[in-house]
Amino acid sequence: MTAVQASDDTYHTNGQHHFNGKAVYHSNGTQNGGSALPAAFSKDVFSHLTLFTGNTMVTGTTGLLNSTAKKSNQELVSAIDHTLNWSLESAQIHGHAITIADNATLGPLEDDRSKYEITVKLFFLSPHGSSEPLSVDHLHNAIQQLEAALSVTSGNLKIDHFILAIPNQTFDENDLDSSEIDQFTEDVQTLYLPIWKRLSELQQTGRIGRLGVSEFSKQQLEILKAAAVQVGAAVPQINQVNLQDCCVLPKGLIDYAKAEGIELLTHGDSSDILPKSTLASLLQPHLPATSASLLEPNFVLKYSVLITSRGLISRKGYIVDAGSE
Amino acid sequence: MGLLSLGTPMHWDEAKKYADHVRTHGIIQFLNLWEATKDSKKDCLLWGDEIEYMVVSYDDENKKAKLSLRVWEILLELAKEEEEAAKDPAKKLLVNSSWHPEYGRYMLEGTPGEPYMGLPRDLLAVERNMKLRRELACKFMKPNEVPVTLTSYPRLGCAGEGLDPHHEPHGPAARSLFVPDDIINAHVRFPTLTANIRRRRGAKVAINTPIFHDKNTPKPFIDPTIPTFNDYPEDKNAIEQGAALPDHIYMDAMAFGMGCCCLQITFQAVNVEEARKIYDQMAPLGPIMLALTAAAPIYRGYLSDVDCRWNVIAQSVDDRTEEERGLKPLKNSKYRIPKSRYDSIDSYISNDPSNKPEYNDIPLVFDEDIYKKLSDNGIDNLLARHISHLFIRDPLVIFHELLNIDDNESTDHFENLQSTNWQTMRFKPPPSKTSPIGWRVEFRSMEIQLTDFENAAFAIFIVLVTRAVLSFNTNFYIPISKVDENMKVAQNRNAVLGEKFHFRKQIFPHGGSLAPGLDRSDEYELMTIDEIINGAPSKGFPGLLGLVNNYLNTLNIDIETRCEISKYLELIKKRANGTLMTAASWMRQFVQNHPDYKQDSVVSDKINYDLVKMIEKINKGEVQVPELLGTFSV
């Protein structure tokens, strides 16, 4: 690994790193500054992509975010971009599947597992209006990938807080009308309950600590609870709400959450965290042929590892899964 | 009650003979402590704040706000409360604080009863506890007394009856033309400290703070209120020997400096390496926070041209001889020493690879023998330099009874020197071999604010910055000489808006070395406080608040807590971008708009009285001051 010497770096807040001349960031030997691409991949069409960003806490990605944005996917986009810039050369290929990982900042936790709190938010990204239930296979895959990122033996990872982010879910403070209630009730039964049941099982066997959802209104929480209770599954203990709504959260939601023991935690994630077109434009400079094939993002797993007793963030990253089937 | 050993202190003539004794044993004590605690690991963030108050006694009939010298009585009552609370958990909830004396006989210091912890929710306890302390202190005050958190008392040292009870100036310890010895805390340590500084220095301390020239202020300004006495040789210092400079406010006692109040924050690190890292990372923030918290524009009844207390305190305890100050060739003094023992730090101490040797660009004065002793006993270069630099000073207060102690059990001699080097940061080893308390760092530059809301906001901000620093592994290193340049500029009138400060441009970790042709000076540039705090998006610089917010947005915080914390951060943001005034600017405005003000820089008794009354009203929520506090409720 050579430490290449730098001239002036300028960082732009949209996450694009523009280097004048050679780059200075050291990873595990891959340095890919400027616009040189490995020619080998440009014509390949990969039908499956798994991408592990590095630890966004140390790459500067999280630190440089514009924190005044209401809802954003800036962090994910910057992290993917950074990973494509730095880790493409070390990509693993199996048939038509490519796995790109920023290995330099992944790996086992430094201290005992008991010192940490691991939070996962799994964004399901089926196309809008899909009538397929959220895939339990994706869930298993996502957890396995996280275990790989943290060098944990398969089946051994305990996740303290697990947030399920269903596609295109945005908090609506207005009450649902009766047809919307019916639609949501049906969606819960057909689309979300299977995965929710699986998550409950994982909670029962101790693989997951607390379960939660994101951007649910009070009515939606009630509907989910009713459906869950009916099949003996867990009830949500967390509901994420957007930070910028803090002064306008409906009292009904606040009271309901208090009564039910649901913690209202803040978040700032876009409801559609990785549109197909965004992924395509990120891939374009590096994997142009694959980009043109418009891979469908299946899920994005966002994770953070905290040392709560000292108020520190040890790791933060994303795992992206996309395919063309 | 703080570092208050009981006993008979030595006069300087005797103490100076034992200086080497204290130093030698201090180092042995440090080495013993190091052996026992160097691997100590504390898994919890624990931290605390220290708030200093002045107790004011109103004479409403004559419209005077005097300083009450009755604080020792108040402290006795508070000590009783603390004792009862220690035995009774229910009482503990109501008291939950710890009280200490300070230099001024009118000063109180309060700390939380238990340290705060590291969760965002714990930060909400800070303002509550600060308010609890203020209420508790008030409980034992007379109806005409009130505690105020003012950094410098505007009319300290003015002629006329400004103290309650009244005492005439001029006493054997301070020999001040302006303040009596009775202004000094009665515990024997404090007058001894005062007198020994004077004796060691060979003259009274000389504090000269530039006066603010207003329309009717004479130019040159020669202070007509400097009295003459003929009791002590030092009485000639001021006028005859020229210690009092024209166009300056002259002060001649430790009380003018150490009688100021400030806001100090101490936090525990997981281990000694983390403590050293935080010490270094927070050091460049010292001048930034000083400018942001500026609250001391008035001294001895005059508007000054500075907004902060720092240089005043530095001069007020400057025990350096003329030789040490470079005014005479070295003959009896061992070293030429550039700074007072109260001033900004002189070196970085972390072994983190990002701490490049070039950043320690101030030639360090240190005791070579002590360095060697430390080094021979396994102390690494940077830490050995740090300690042997602290130990160039003489111990000023030595108690006969505590001269010979067990170096295996006590750290008294080490603490003697450690606690009389007063700097922007303090690196604190565990108090003893067996203490549950670990390695700590103290952030010391901030001025105390007028309300608990503001004090809580700044305390919380600092703690969050330390969390962000460690979480992002930031790099704030700039040459330490540039930090010193920042310190000078930070104290200027309205520095928060009018000055620029050296700050590192690229604060996220980058491997590799600098390109050839570049040197360290390309790593930093001049930025405004607004840019440093709120960021410069076009330069890709997130600002300290940007870092803190990005840190907070990664944690699991409930919405109520997040909203509360956001309020505190809003205050910081608005002070940094000029939407809200600093306390110093607001006090200036108050004086200059006062009907009695004659545009001659003079802050009269009436103006002072009205100012203190206003501050009291603000604290009680009886009056809104939007230019200072916006729509925040205190």
From TrEMBL, chain A:
GO terms for molecular function: enzyme regulator activity; glutamate-cysteine ligase catalytic subunit binding. PANTHER family: GLUTAMATE CYSTEINE LIGASE REGULATORY SUBUNIT, GLUTAMATE--CYSTEINE LIGASE REGULATORY SUBUNIT. It comes from Linnemannia elongata AG-77. SUPFAM superfamilies: NAD(P)-linked oxidoreductase. One of its GO terms (biological process) is glutathione biosynthetic process. Residues 68-266 form the NADP-dependent oxidoreductase domain. Belongs to the aldo/keto reductase family. Glutamate--cysteine ligase light chain subfamily. This is GCS light chain. Heterodimer of a catalytic heavy chain and a regulatory light chain. One of its GO terms (cellular component) is glutamate-cysteine ligase complex. Keywords: Glutathione biosynthesis. Pathway: Sulfur metabolism; glutathione biosynthesis; glutathione from L-cysteine and L-glutamate: step 1/2.
From TrEMBL, chain B:
It holds the Pfam family GCS. Its EC number is 6.3.2.2. It catalyses: L-cysteine + L-glutamate + ATP = gamma-L-glutamyl-L-cysteine + ADP + phosphate + H(+). GO terms for cellular component: glutamate-cysteine ligase complex. Gene3D superfamilies: 1.10.8.960, 3.30.590.50. One of its GO terms (biological process) is glutathione biosynthetic process. Belongs to the glutamate--cysteine ligase type 3 family. This is Glutamate--cysteine ligase. Keywords: ATP-binding, Glutathione biosynthesis, Ligase, Nucleotide-binding. One of its GO terms (molecular function) is glutamate-cysteine ligase activity. Pathway: Sulfur metabolism; glutathione biosynthesis; glutathione from L-cysteine and L-glutamate: step 1/2. It is an enzyme of class 6 (ligase). It comes from Linnemannia elongata AG-77.
